[in-house]
Amino acid sequence: MSNPLFNLEKILDIEKWHKLQDSLALVTKMAIITVDYKGVPVTKHSYCQPFCQGVRKDAVLSPYCQKCDARGGLEAVRLNKPYIYMCHFNIIDIAIPIIIDNQYIGAIMAGQIKLRDADPQLEQIVSRPPNVETNNKFKALEEDYLALPTLSYEEVSTTAEMLFHLCNYTVEEAINKNTTIEMYKRALAREIDQPSSVDSLSASDRTYRNIQAIQSELSSTLIENKIKVSKEIRSSNPLLQPAFDYIYHHKSENVTLNEMAKVCHISPSYFSRLFTKETGENFSVFAPRLKIEWAKQLLVTTDQSINQISDELGFCDAGYFIKTFKKFENLTPAVYRNWYQKHDAEQD
């Protein structure tokens, strides 16, 4: 369950991405780093401020920074938008989620700045008990603290939105490009393997056939990439396994987060945090997505009507089922079934 649909390090040319990250950090006056869905950095920091460098090198203070990063990322996923917060030194940071096809695959962590204007009641997500040792360490770094860049809250929020749209667009385009290149390579391989009789075709005919093959396979891959085999769900976190077992064995029920927390004998808030960390998605997104994956299996393996599938999976009515299906797949159940049957016939 921990594996996301997409892997940032495989999607991106990290060297080129880091150059973009450096440029964005320079323009926005913010330190920036990119992390995967587990919070593990996939790039180095761009323009990490001397104060934060000193804090992150300290064995006592660094764990608080890591907790801030982890909490900020989870909140951004929960909100499905950039989350602006204060770290344990009351410095402004931003967690910017990268979400493709409702799948959380990583985040941009930006910030290391101070606010110029009045405090807009931002949350300090990790508190650090004051003591003499940490106070002395702060005094040693106080000059660097005073030199931190200062921005207005409006500048911070505008920058957060810009980074959110830019980075999500860039990653999505990279996924489409990689898929297209892979399809082109397969088409070329097929041409090499074709019988010699095909040589009699004109160059334009062969090109046209290759383009058709690429388009067909690209469409297939973009849909099939989202299809998860309908097997029992195994969680890497044993606390969550009872919930996954219940969901799998009660496909016709519309379970809630509170109900699943009770099944796991933990609080709803703790369940929500664990669930998001485990799957990279909010429960409110995961549950309907899973039903749609089951619906796709029924659409291609049975002759059940749309109404029957809707009823079997516990949707209130077929109209809501179609609306939910289109939200995740960008096409209706009927179009999906027709496309799959046509594609399957062409393969035969």
TrEMBL record:
State if S-adenosyl-L-methionine is listed as a keyword: no
> What's a Pfam family in this record?
PocR
Q: Which UniProt keywords apply?
A: DNA-binding, Transcription, Transcription regulation
A molecular function (GO) term: DNA-binding transcription factor activity
- Domain HTH araC/xylS-type intervals: 241-339
**SUPFAM superfamilies according to UniProt:** Homeodomain-like (SSF46689)
Is DNA-binding found in the keyword set?
yes
User: What name has this protein been given in UniProt?
Assistant: Helix-turn-helix domain-containing protein
